[in-house]
Amino acid sequence: MLVARAAHELWRERILREGWRAGRGFDTSDHTHEALVPFDELTVEVQRDVEFEVVASGVIEQLAALDLHPRGDDAVLVASSVRSGQRVRFAGTPASEGTVIGCTFDPLYGWPELVHVRWDDGAETSHPLAAGDLLRVEPGKD
Measured between alpha carbons, how far is 79 from 95 in angstroms, rounded to an integer? Predict the structure, then answer.
């Protein structure tokens, strides 16, 4: 299962950043953990445990519910469509339209993190892109 592999690698990266290292067993005083190896080096039993944890967490259902390829008017603003000049509206408020005037980028991944909008009434606000509360307004649409 690809999601289990990705989850393990993300866990592994985080634990390594926290100063842990691979070892023959789990030892809190020595900061060693036997599972700090690439997913393919885990035993089949441990790989199955990781798969079980991923499924039990509900993350599979959350991933399945994502609209990864929004299109058309009122599609949620996503990283690939953020650009200065993009017309947007606030979800749930059809009358509130504005224009993207810039964004702040995530320093680790380099994608847009905060989107800065100047609303038609002159107010300026910033919105976390991940919140999904900004919708694209397609040109020529009312």
Answer: 24
